[in-house]
Amino acid sequence: MDSSPLSQERSLGLSSPLSSVLGNITELIGNTDLLRIKSISELTACDILLKCEQQNPGGSIKDRAALQLVQDAVFSGKLKPGMTIVEGTAGNTGIGLALVAKAFGFKMLVVMPKGQAPEKELMINLYGAELMLVDACPFANPNHFYHTAKRIAEADDRYWWADQFENTSNSKAHYEHTGPEIWQQTQGKIDALVSVAGTGGTIAGNSRYLSAKHHGLQTWLVDPDGSGIYSYLKTGKYVSNGSSFTEGIGIMRTVENFRQAKVDKAITLPDRDLIAIARHVRELDGIVLGSSSALNVAGAMYAAAKMGPGNTIVTFCCDLAERSSSKLYNEDFLVEKGFSESSESLKEMFERYQNEPEEAVVDVHR
Fold it and tell me: Among 102-106, 146-150, 177-181, 226-230, where is mean pLDDT lowest?
């Protein structure tokens, strides 16, 4: 049986990729632009490049994983006409799956923890998906959104569970599409890849592809406070320090997608750094970043500070900035969380990163 991407597209009713008129909204997913961030590039004497994943029709990088998850499930026969897709998510994967489900004629049930950005709830509803909100709780609690979605699917064969954390179609989307796009757009000139991790699909698929093309590539993982990935890569144990208002990134357990990641360096950065970066690039470059994207850009500047001038560093704009408007761009929320309206300058941040001790960076292969 032919398993090529073209045959999968035909099986889902998509038009030929050679057509100048697209036949399905999912064909807008991918082929996003790569943007040089002028202010930070000039400051660091590196090319800091931003993969503009907010250009996807569902507004986030998770559209890629959503499409691949559904395509592979349809092709394997696990997802059949009339079934309902169910997934536990902090929001963006739910939006992506809701979009793909609607485009292909499936029903969608999104299980999401309470307290996420209301903008995400709105988009899920606009795509016609059913939204189930559950109390936010630790993963060990059986009422966690992940376990709830799994339990619903296991109890009724009319549901198909997307399982974005363990289903490696997630990282496959980036290995087969995002990574090759970056390689082509940079014409093979890429020295570092910087990314946060939620499920690990983005960093895994891209790092695997790009490190195979360029053996000297450094993949930097940037972790927010409250996540345990940095600690795990440093000590082998998941330990949480502090907390972060970012959504959908950071994990406290090893999942199958993240296991595939080729991580070389790992750092952890506080929320005050992503707030400062978001403010500066909005003012200096006209680029409005969401919280995950701002952490990515801060991580890219950190990598530039440690690697030195002349490097090309690629990171991701994960989603539309308005999905962070109720937190990152809400001064009342920030003041309530203890952040002032002032931030250190980009130059001060860069110098602080340059002067941070080497032991602050986890060398994964040491």
Answer: 226-230
Residue labelled with tokens 């400051």? 43
Where would I find the H helices in the chain? 5-11, 38-44, 62-76, 92-104, 118-126, 145-155, 169-173, 179-185, 201-213, 229-235, 256-259, 271-285, 291-307, 331-336, 346-355
Q: Residue 66 and residue 125: Cα distance in Å, rounded?
A: 17
Report the C-alpha gap between 20 and 246 in whole angstroms. 39
In the sheet with 130-134, reading across from the earlier edge strand, the strands are 130-134, 107-113, 84-88, 159-161
Residues forming beta bridges with residue 89, ordered by sequence position: none
Contact 131, 124 (CB under 8 A): yes
- Strands 312-317, 218-224: pairing is unpaired
* E-strand stretches of the chain: 34-36, 47-52, 84-88, 107-113, 130-134, 159-161, 192-195, 218-224, 265-269, 312-317, 362-363
Task: Please give the distance of CA 326 from its chain centroid, rounded to a whole number.
Answer: 19
Two tokens, residue 83: 């079934």
Cβ atoms of residues 109 and 152 within 8 Å: yes
3-state secondary structure of 219: strand
Q: 3-state class of 161 per DSSP? A: strand
To the question of pTM greater than 0.85 for the whole model, the response is: yes
Share of the chain above pLDDT 70, in %: 95
Question: Which residue of the set 38, 51, 62, 120 is catalytic?
Answer: 62
pLDDT score of 116 more than 50: yes
- Alpha-carbon distance 207 to 179, whole Å? 8
Nearest to 36 by CA among 241, 342, 309, 281: 281
Query: Does the structure show a pLDDT above 70 at 241?
Result: yes
CA 96 to CA 129: how far, in whole Å?
Answer: 11
Helix (H, G, I), strand (E, B) or coil at 312: strand
Q: CA 44 to CA 181: how far, in whole Å? A: 25
327 has catalytic annotation? no
Q: What is the DSSP string of 223-272?
A: EETT-SHHHHHHHSS----S-----S---SS--HHHHT----EEEEE-HH
Half-sphere exposure (CA, 13 Å, Cβ side) for 276?
18
Number of residues assigned to the chain: 366
- Please report where in the chains the tokens 């986030």 appear, as a residue: 60
